[in-house]
Hints:
Elements: H1 2-49, H2 52-58, H3 88-104, E1 127-128, E2 154-160, H4 170-186, E3 189-194, H5 205-229, E4 237-241, H6 254-260, E5 262-268
Parallel strand pairs: 3-4
Antiparallel strand pairs: 1-2, 2-5, 3-5
Amino acid sequence: MTEFQDAMGQASTTAGRTRRYGPVRMACFSVGFAAFFSLAGCTAVDDLTTSPEERAAQQPQKVTTEGVKDEFPNLAEVPSEPKPHTPPETREEIVSELTDDRSKASFTDPTPLITAAPKKLDPFASATIISADSVTTSTQFAGLSSPTETGPGQLAAIIFFNHGSVVLDENDLGVLRDLVTLHEQRGGRLRVIGHASSRTQNATPDEHQVANFEMSLERANVVSAELLSLGVSPDALATEAKADAEPVYHEFMPSGEAGNRRVEIFLEK
């Protein structure tokens, strides 16, 4: 009996506990179910008000590993030379074609411009300094100053010579004829003075002076002989030689040297 009573007592105790804690557990379960259905309702409302594009944008992006296994270039290495745009064979063919075209090209020379040749003016052409009508000195040189009148009387004419020459040309003879005409009109006396430039061949100083004196004297004699042949009286003619002692131009230029190879003729009263 005692064991039966104990068993019944435990059963009643267990039943009492069950009855005591039953309502609490039921309340907890009710709150949980209410929260679950509330969240489900919100999710359903969001699904109805959100477009498919917005829902897709809200999805988390998928992480990819594309390119992780690619090799990075070595910055310490020199890159290889780029390939040419055209193969060497093609370039050689183009160059060959251009060369052929150039060899076949023809050019037409332009028509030359015809111009009148300028009149050559000799700055040292022999000339008469004064005319029969006036004793005023006239221009005889182009681009060079007239020689200084260092001789006696008035400088009437100058005869120029080439280097080492004593030959009179047609212009020289014409000047001497004009001078004779002037002398006949005005009278007086003619003094012929020969000169030479300082240039000679390699020689001693004495040989240099002798060569220049002989050249100046020979030139003066040639002019005097022509004046005599034109009718000038020997009594009205005097001949001298100065060698290179009286230059009128500096000889650092050929033009100055040419101006010193001369015969001056003065008209004296």
